[in-house]
Design brief:
The structure is a single chain. The chain is mostly helical and about 130 residues long. It has a domain at about 15-95: Winged helix-like DNA-binding domain superfamily/Winged helix DNA-binding domain (Arc Repressor Mutant, subunit A, Orthogonal Bundle), CATH 1.10.10.10. Helices cover about 60% and strands about 10% of the residues. The chain has a three-stranded antiparallel β-sheet. The radius of gyration is 20 Å and the shape is globular.
Length: about 130
Amino acid sequence: METNSPNVYSETCPTRAILNRIADKWTTLIIGILSTAGVPVRFGEIRRRIDGISQKMLTQTLRDLERDGLVARTVYPEIPPRVDYALTPLGHTLEVPLNALATWAHQHMTAIGEAQAVYDARAGNRAFSR
């Protein structure tokens, strides 16, 4: 029996592209900032709040999120131009799952750090035993 349900493991599945977008580290951080702000946020403020993101990457990610209908961009005809970003209603639907992931990461960061240290110590021992 054939079903038309999405197969996220298939390279051609449209849901895979969506998962790639929302699982991107810059996307999750941008959505987190826009979610907690409660008001539209200017480009420069987003960039100041995300350590390590380049202007080019922030611009591209915001464009992609706007294209996907997750972020709304508002341009104000001022000198200098002002551009604000805010989550759309669709973008707000990501708040719960992304907050759950952030909570999980926070709750388990110590255990993961410990596991990494054990692994790295074993990997270091393997390098010497060859």
